[in-house]
Fold this sequence. Notes:
The chain is α+β, with helices and mostly antiparallel strands. The chain has helices at 2-22, 70-83, 88-102, 132-147, and strands spanning 35-41, 46-55, 58-67, 152-154. It has a 4-stranded mixed sheet with strand order 3-2-1-4. The relative contact order is 0.21. Bound molecules: zinc ion. Zinc ion binds next to helix 2.
Amino acid sequence: xxxxxxxxxxxxxxxxxxxxxxxxxxxxxxxxxxxxxxxxxxxxxxxxxxxxxxxxxxxxxxxxxxxxxxxxxxxxxxxxxxxxxxxxxxxxxxxxxxxxxxxxxxxxxxxxxxxxxxxxxxxxxxxxxxxxxxxxxxxxxxxxxxxxxxxxxxxx
Length: 156
Ligand code: ZN
């Protein structure tokens, strides 16, 4: 029964990734961005630029543009859904959580870690180590953007 549920969950996550890859949310340029960063994953050829408008210690808006594989685009789209409206501190915390979880530094929800909500869909890439950098690219760009106004983040 649990195996069946796991399979249903995996299928749901797969659909969520494909949906965000085909119809990315928050896609485009943000003309009045206060912070930007570029992310490059040479292993896969993923490239993106992330724009943040930060107002009063809060992420007022986020956009991204670029091109990459389905996982990198879906991850950036989900990132936008997650951090828009958050304080800088909470956005930074998501960077720590996602990169920790995808690289296996912190516990999965199955082992008692935090529930990631729909970002749990990204956790599936742990089974494919070469794709982890695709999934974390946008989050590294977020981290870079939060700390400086022009920075190139690389997964290398
Ligand atoms: Zn990729």
